Amino acid sequence: MKAFDLINQFEKFAPKEIAVEHDPIGLQIGSINQEIHKVLVTLDVRPEVVEEAIENGCDMIFSHHPAMFRPVKNMDLDVPQNKMYADIIKHNIVVYSAHTNLDNADGGMNDWLAEAMDLRNVEGLVSQGDYKGVEYFMGRIGELKETTTVEQFAHNCKEYFNVSGLRLISHELNKPVKKVAVLGGDGGKFYNIAKDKGADVYVTGDVYYHVGHDMIADHMSVVDPGHHIESICKPYLAEMFKEWAKDYDWPIDVIESSINTDPYQFI
To answer: Which UniProt keyword terms apply here (predicted)?
Structure first.
């Protein structure tokens, strides 16, 4: 099969048109007409992930975060990132990235995060507009099975997302929590939408220092478990691709990256 077959099917699930404007999604390196046999699913495309793909004989890497956020100014191969691109080309690996279109897709990234917290009565959070008569949203908002407190919910998030530490922004640790909003990645600027929709707590990553002050001033409790919780996409995407391979008789293998690409450690 060709890379196009997988890409075409995926874009029916998460159309490129529902991505945030100027998000560098889609084909990153290679040709959609290349024959593929083994796909590596990953959150990030980093040099160690490319090494993993090469060692496993993969001819396609499917990532959530784009491999090329910024244009390459030169191809100095002493720069690790540039060498990574050269290795990808040398080993004929197709790289495709689905970023905010996967975030916004029904049944995509933010639904997976909501599922990790076992939220009920889940709805969209931040409207991204209409595409083919369907309104798409970034982020989700729903209800916990049982009411808890801000402090206990934050502790629970360490288990929900398998993180060893997180940042809690709140001066109301004993405040009851029932309604939870979540937006994977960097969603601090949307906290007022979560508040306006009645969220008792908002889960998102990469909250800036001064935004954190604004959240506290607005009496909004926020749990920041980091950006890497989006690695939840790996098993979901791998299972989706395996199901499609079975349904459409695609002769491909699909594996999940075993590399932890989180740049942060809690010590």
So the answer is: Metal-binding
Residues in contact with 89: Cβ distance below 8 Å, sequence separation at least 6, in sequence order: 29, 30
At 71 the pLDDT is 78
Contact call for residues 125 and 140 (beta carbons, < 8 A): yes
Q: What is the CATH number of domain 3-102?
A: 3.40.1390.30
**Domain spans of the chain, in order of start:** 3-102, 106-228
DSSP of 232-245, one letter per residue? GHHHHHHHHHHHHH
Query: CA quadruple 63, 226, 172, 220: dihedral positive or negative?
Result: negative
pLDDT digits (tens, 9 = 90+) for 29-57: 999 999 999 999 999 999 999 999 999 99
Instruction: Establish whether 103 is an annotated binding residue.
Output: yes
- Class of domain 106-228 as given by CATH: alpha beta
**Does the annotation flag 230 for ligand binding?**
yes
Do domains 3-102 and 106-228 share one topology? The answer is yes
Pairing of strands 120-131, 134-149: antiparallel
Per the annotation, does 44 bind a ligand? no
Burial string for 36-66 (b: 16+ CB within 10 Å, else e) reads beebbbbbbbbeebbebbbeeebbbbbbbbb
